[in-house]
Amino acid sequence: MQARTSHVISTLATGVEVRALSFDSLKEVTECLLEMNQEVVKVILDCKKDIWKNQELFELVEDYFENSLKTLDFCAALEKGLRIARDSQLLILVSLQQFEDESLVEVLSPFC
User: Fold this and answer.
1) Residues 64/5, Cβ–Cβ less than 8 Å
2) Domain limits at 11?
3) Among residues 86, 65, 89, 79, which one has the least CA distance to residue 30?
4) Are the beta carbons of 79 and 40 closer than 8 angstroms?
5) Residue 56 to residues 29, 43, 52: CA-CA distances in angstroms?
6) Mean pLDDT score across all residues of the chain
7) What is the pTM of this model?
8) What percent of the chain has pLDDT over 70?
9) Which UniProt keywords are listed (predicted)?
10) Side-chain half-sphere of 44: how many Cα atoms within 13 Å?
11) Structural domains in the chain (count)
12) How many angstroms separate the CA atoms of 35 and 98, rounded?
């Protein structure tokens, strides 16, 4: 679990270094979180009798999964925001290209 957490953090840190968060790095982080959750579930199932008997352990497990769900919700919202930003950037680039093309036509039209 510690290795997966370190991997997630380093993936995010790499995105920060280049001042960009790509869909690939977001996908990798999400996959790591899901894999980590699967491993935690295995541990919980192996120790379920001890967890059910101990209220503090039970609450810790509940908190872990609640935080995991919130983290995945955050990743989903981040992905949605990245998609909107990408789509907006593409719209701006297309609009600029059309403006440049129209400007060129207006400049050249007196000569035609």
Assistant:
1) no
2) 2-111
3) 79
4) no
5) 29, 16, 9
6) 80
7) 0.62
8) 76
9) Membrane, Transmembrane, Transmembrane helix
10) 16
11) 1
12) 45
